[in-house]
Amino acid sequence: MAKSPSPSVLQKMNSAEHAIVPVILSGGAGSRLWPVSRKSFPKQFWPLLTEQTLLQETALRGQAEGTAGPVVVCNDAHRFIIAEQLRDAGIQDARIVLEPEGRNSTPAITAAAFIVAEHNPDAILWIMTADAAIQDEASLHQALSSAITAAKKGYLVTFGMTPTRPETGYGYIEQGEALPDMPDVFQVGRFVEKPDTSRARSFLAQGGYLWNSGMFVVRAATFLSEVERYEPEVFACVRQSVANRKSDMDFERLEPESFCRSPDISVDYAVAERTDMAAVVPGSFGWSDVGSWDALWELGPQDASGNVAHGNVMLEDVQRSYVRTDGILTAVLGVDDLIVVTTQDAVLVTKKDRAQDVKLLVQQLKKNDMPEADSHQMTYRPWGHYEALTQGHRFQVKKIVVKPGQKLSLQKHYHRAEHWVIVEGTALVTRGEEELIVRENESIYLPLGDLHRLENPGHIPLTLIEVQSGSYLGEDDIVRVEDVYSRN
């Protein structure tokens, strides 16, 4: 991926009256990238293209001198993951806004617009999803300068990508007439839903149609005015939710009752397709929504046989395929045009031209109540993570890693006892009225019903093996008495 260019383009467009505020929407589940992307840890949190995650790449893309810190709108379950990944990327001034539930993009953007407008209604919102890829960031910033010019004049501006193939996974924009005195900015003729293959081919042959990138540039006050005009119920519900929001550590928690009354509607349907101030800036900067495995094949480094391999992969007589493993050796022999993805608990094999249909498998998994639909074996928590190793009748074994200086909640269980064996680091364990130091190769037993807590007082990660035994081993058998992360 290209590095961000000098911020001079944005500096020229920026001013105190029209500060540029990146707004990052992080609410998708990315089901077409199953089994890597799942509801508990979706695609934006994975390093799918570089060593940085898609969220980190997006946030860094929005960083330039004079640009305000990003506003990230996400669901409650991902708040600590997002905060940690932003810190790891060196972004210290983000505002993380928590939705009580997903209500699509219009309520999310409206909440961000209200929050930004409290200090500067003329601020320019640069709205983007957390899970897209950009290969040519210099061209993106040039296009952004044109979009900002139009946004200052009251337009709702989107970026239209010049199509390179008859893509059926994207919506399209019909490019209209050029807008006067605004180079490279055009009216939107119309928005078009994701087409079938035949119609997509006709768009490509006809010309004048662009892929809808889902990125928008607009003044905060303009966006709020258009929402009030076309979706007054969204406007009223979100305004009340923002007004009654609460601070929770480093997060801003939207008031649930009002927000959840808001209609569930995308920004395309609510505003973009209805406003008479829609504009588009065409671009060719290597955009992709990274929405499917064939997209990652196109974006990845291909070998002489057209293959993209990631992880512990062995290929023999394989052409034009994408093979990925996050652990165990994956060997593929004598096939063409396949997607093969291996995780700790699932394997996906599909023809490359069926990559868009992976979501159908996820639907079947959910219909059958299979946990692999939404959850990984590894589960992330604000204090670290745990990994399910094995489970049998009345027992379960987990590997737990606690970050330095972090601690779990003070808790107890009604249905299970636990045995902890320290593998690496030092643990400070609360057990009833006792506080005990447990070191490497030592263990401690926690009887059923005992109040307990695990803490890492050291400077290296604490790793332990937990053996649970009892009549019920579900994660909901946790009674939290005290928690530094304000969880219930």
From TrEMBL:
Coiled coil: none annotated. Residues 22-303 form the Nucleotidyl transferase domain. It holds the Pfam family NTP_transferase. Residues 312-365 form the MannoseP isomerase/GMP-like beta-helix domain. GO terms for molecular function: mannose-1-phosphate guanylyltransferase (GTP) activity; mannose-6-phosphate isomerase activity. Its EC number is 2.7.7.13. It catalyses: alpha-D-mannose 1-phosphate + GTP + H(+) = GDP-alpha-D-mannose + diphosphate. Residues 371-483 form the Mannose-6-phosphate isomerase type II C-terminal domain. Keywords: GTP-binding, Isomerase, Nucleotide-binding, Nucleotidyltransferase, Transferase. The keyword NAD does not apply. Belongs to the mannose-6-phosphate isomerase type 2 family. This is mannose-1-phosphate guanylyltransferase. It comes from Acetobacter thailandicus. The lineage of its organism: Bacteria, Pseudomonadati, Pseudomonadota, Alphaproteobacteria, Acetobacterales.
